[in-house]
Write a structure and sequence with these properties.
Blueprint lengths: L2 H22 L2 H11 L6 H14 L8 H21 L9 E2 L2 E2 L1 H5 L1 H26 L3 H15 L4 H10 L7 H26 L4 H28 L2 H4 L5 H5 L4 H23 L8 H12 L3
Antiparallel strand pairs: 1-2
């Protein structure tokens, strides 16, 4: 997979997804939706959808499969919603995201809350239309929607975010920390892998291994995020560094120390890639793992 080309295709697919929403939405909510969704990002979740599809099929995505890029937008829309709400004054109270003022700073708190809320149903609808374009059956479409919703809700991202906030200023062990990180970050990355694999027709054993890969690589992703908050610059990160310490967040470095956090991230990355040993077409997933481990923003 050519990552830059894939990102370009995902960005065009994101534009198409939200253009349908923006045509019927009030302008006061259309503007913050567009601002949040089309802001520059790594697009890790869409890349995981596409790379998982390739791993199962053992072939590269062809230009004739635009519906797969649309499908890959679904977890990215959920991610965009989570960032809007994370940054709110009542949450992490951040004013900078991806090198730009956060959504509530640019459009106000009410518009930010509602823009975030609008993205979840848009993500579900995006899976539905993409599944139709891919020609998958109703059972697979339903399973993809269930996978995304489960990873996004109280047992996934939303619940993880709440546990993250509740743990501020406290002390936790590694198991408790990683349970927070599973919900906050890893389950949505795992869902991205499963959704791509479902679209490719994967069986139960393959789905389980890719789900496990996604959980491990998601924990590694969050560990690297925590490390970068300590060592990264605001210019490089596109957001204010050192915020975790200001907010009293429990993080991988706060539990293991900086060197221990780096070792844990590497260990998790290796465990993630071990889940791929049975998939000869998983080169893209291996490369994404290294991209996650080696990133500086």
């Amino acid at each position: 997979m050519d990552f830059e080309r894939a990102r370009e295709k995902v960005n065009r697919a994101l534009e198409a997804c939200i253009s349908e929403e923006l045509r019927v939405a009030p302008s006061s909510i259309a503007a913050p939706i567009e601002y949040a969704v089309l802001s520059p990002g790594k697009r890790i979740r869409p890349l995981l959808v596409i790379a998982s599809w390739e791993a199962v099929r053992g072939e590269s995505v062809e230009d004739t499969k635009p519906a797969l890029y649309r499908l890959a937008c679904a977890p990215e829309l959920v991610h965009a919603y989570s960032l809007i709400h994370d940054d709110l004054p009542c949450m992490d109270d951040d004013n900078l995201r991806r090198g730009r003022p956060t959504v509530h700073v640019s459009f106000g708190v009410r518009a930010a809350i509602l823009a975030g809320a609008a993205l979840m149903p848009l993500a579900v609808g995006t899976i539905g239309s993409a599944a139709d374009g891919l020609g998958v059956g109703m059972d697979i479409k339903t399973e993809m929607i269930k996978t995304l919703v489960a990873a996004s809700g109280g047992a996934g991202m939303v619940g993880g975010q709440l546990l993250d906030i509740e743990a501020e200023g406290g002390e936790v062990d590694l198991d408790t920390l990683e349970e927070i990180h599973l919900g906050k970050t890893a389950r949505l990355l795992s869902a991205s892998c499963v959704i791509g694999a479902l679209a490719a027709g994967a069986g139960p054993d393959v789905l389980e291994r890719l789900a496990n890969y996604g959980l491990k690589v998601g924990l590694a992703f969050q560990a690297i995020d925590d490390i970068l908050d300590v060592i990264g610059s605001t210019e490089k990160l596109g957001k204010f560094g050192g915020r975790d310490q200001v907010l009293g967040k429990v993080t991988t470095p706060s539990v293991l120390g900086l060197s221990g956090a780096k070792e844990r991230a590497t260990q998790l990355g290796n465990e993630a890639m071990a889940e791929l040993d049975f998939l000869p077409g998983s080169e893209g997933l291996h490369r994404i793992t290294h991209l996650i481990l080696d990133r500086d923003r």
